[in-house]
């Protein structure tokens, strides 16, 4: 404002005062007042101060906050600061900051100028406004934050910055990521400036870390990692210890909100947590490990793990132990979070830590081998194993295994190290699930020592150190058995336990003794038990005597039978009734229904040994043969029981393998009808060995049923009385190929079990046709035709052979006539091997159905390809088979007639049958086409003697019908011709409908006689006549036919 006189200034001051008095209700007046004050000369400082106080009073009276602060106030503030009215400027600043509209009246540019101008005043109100005032938009707040940090960086006012740093972060708005990131970056930069945050700035580490973790979960991890690295540059042991402790706590505190373990490892590494006291790691990992272990281990470990029997020794009180687990977002429980960071750090921790890491590896391995078993309460273990977080542990843990093995092997030279190692491994710990896993690791270490060819003396030292721990004692006896076997102390212990078991048997005490004795016996099948023979016999008799009169738990039964398997070979030459007792105990255990497969497993192994050894001992042979029917029934029942249960672990698979091998030896007399039905379902079982066993046993049953049906069919007078039929279970499997187009084109190698089951069912169906008479064969083929099963089978076969492809599959390497199921599984293309064989079976057993399909086939390309396939790979084989059959003993037994001769020419395609009658020959020719049997066989009458033409043609038609319509063989056609001729000349009357002696359909003689005209008819011919004429009258005399 230009210079003016005092009286003018006086008027100005009066107008300012008046305008301010009106400002509460008149914003225009207020703006005027502020505008005029900005133009007052510097010399008017007293008046300016007075007006500022009036402005302050105006704001204080505005208790409602309704007063709108104009921008002119900000302009006034800048003028006051510029002219060094410091005190007045602070008052105006206080007015601005206390106004509810302070965030709206200042632009970002002004905020920046405000920060630069006034932060140096160390105004608490201004600092609070910059850092903690939550009013305004996110952009406005962020502008204040950045202005503050820009000032801090440019002016390095560390005292002011450090004084407000922690409150600034504590008050950060967690909904604003930008402000959070700015806060952490500022803290990082402060740490990089080497400011002593703890001692000089007074920041408490715990309070600081609480804020960091709260904000860090919401931020980009790179910002958090940079902050930690910066804080680690602080020359403060207190802060470093706090950082390490805090990071470790984050590792051990597991929840869905936990920081991912890979990121925590980076923090673990950068804060040098591995330098923390080892006791912390041991204590926390031990505690976390106990939580994830179940109270009891699955009993199937008995079968698949050398230490599995020890799982039975864990007290029953532990079985009720349960624990609730929490997991992070990756599915890791606390124990595996700990293991991850410790293992990845690669540092050499204490032996106990290494032990816990090995247990973690053992848990993952156990989950792989026994996915459905209760090996660990951590349900996420399988998913965790698949994640790859714990891959390649075997390589990383081998170093400690080597280290521990070295200490144990050299235990005699450094007892302190040996004792320390035993303590770390958990020797003499309480008998719990955890101790079982400790023992499992100990066994691995001993196995490594065994690989190094540990000496007997070294092994004895380790053995003695284990004497106070049952689990370690058994593990040592098993792992170092070869080295210890002839050691004096080991032999003494073995004989002492054997001697104790010849006395009174007490279940719990004796079970423990049996576990120890079994571990002390040789694990080498070629070596004897090394127990004196007389004591061994007493031991066997005592155990068998106890077992026959007392109830046996599954565990005790397993241990007794396991011991018998060890010692019976050593007494195999002994005679006595104890062999009968052994068989009785075997039967008793096979009937145990405890749900524990370990006893069933040992019983099946004992049955296998007795079955292979009984011939070497006369007493055993007599007892075994007498008990064999009962034994086979129990084995069959055991197999069906095992096969019906889920086989989702290694133990059940091993048990089913042994049961399968024994089941294949069981005779059909031990298998009842209900079991036969269940076996048919097992043709599609998911386990290959169960599937093959079902096939082998069913094959025997099919053979038995076929022989019985052949016998009953021979006795049946009428065709309808023939009882031949396929099992419905096989037909249901044959209805579903379980093969898609992609299976055919993507497949090479073994089939899946459902596909193999389909092919096996068809192999079994065709087995019913083997050596069956024509009448029975006609009945079976009729069933297949009615069920319409052959056409879908042929479609599958030809699809597998890829007949419509430019290059069809090559079936030449595969056997057509025979099928070895054990071998075919190992062949290059199992599906093609089955297809090649089944097409041969179709052409052999149901040629008429194949021919009908081929004739009706509308796809010319396919029918041509099928014909080419048949001519190239099958026709000649089939012709040769028919020729060989005509030349076989079977033919001679069927065609027992000195008047009949058969002559073969043209490579087997022309077969001439001659029947001599009164030195004259009656001759029929059968001519097989090149594409046999797709085209009809031609049957020609070469020479007729002594019969009417109608009868002669009926005989020829009958033979041709056998070959073309009834799926008969050349031998069947010749046999029909021979019987018609011989019966005719013996005086047997022909049927007056078909003019043949034997019925073409069922090969029966004419048996239905008209009571009026006395003519004879075949039942089948008469039935057709009645059906076609719709009346029950004699075809000749037309009178009502009376049966």
From TrEMBL:
Superkingdom of source: Eukaryota
Catalyzed reactions: S-ubiquitinyl-[E2 ubiquitin-conjugating enzyme]-L-cysteine + [acceptor protein]-L-lysine = [E2 ubiquitin-conjugating enzyme]-L-cysteine + N(6)-ubiquitinyl-[acceptor protein]-L-lysine
Cellular localisation: Cytoplasm, Cytosol
Cross-referenced CDD domains: RING-CH-C4HC3_LTN1
GO molecular function, a single term: zinc ion binding
Domain RING-type: 991-1038
Any GO CC annotation of this UniProt entry: cytosol
Keyword vocabulary terms for this entry: Cytoplasm, Metal-binding, Repeat, Transferase, Ubl conjugation pathway, Zinc, Zinc-finger
Enzyme class: transferase
Domain (RING-CH-type): residue spans on this chain: 983-1043
Pathway entry: Protein modification; protein ubiquitination
Enzyme Commission number(s) from the entry: 2.3.2.27
Endoplasmic reticulum keyword on record: no
Any single Pfam family the record assigns to this protein: UBC_like
Keyword check for Transferase: yes
One Gene Ontology biological process: ribosome-associated ubiquitin-dependent protein catabolic process
Cited function: E3 ubiquitin-protein ligase. Component of the ribosome quality control complex (RQC), a ribosome-associated complex that mediates ubiquitination and extraction of incompletely synthesized nascent chains for proteasomal degradation. E3 ubiquitin-protein ligase component of the ribosome quality control complex (RQC), a ribosome-associated complex that mediates ubiquitination and extraction of incompletely synthesized nascent chains for proteasomal degradation. Mediates ubiquitination of proteins derived from mRNAs lacking stop codons (non-stop proteins) and other translation arrest products induced by poly-lysine sequences and tandem rare codons. Ubiquitination leads to CDC48 recruitment for extraction and degradation of the incomplete translation product. May indirectly play a role in chromatin function and transcription.
Family: Belongs to the LTN1 family.
Record text on subunit structure and interactions: Component of the ribosome quality control complex (RQC).
This protein's name: E3 ubiquitin-protein ligase listerin
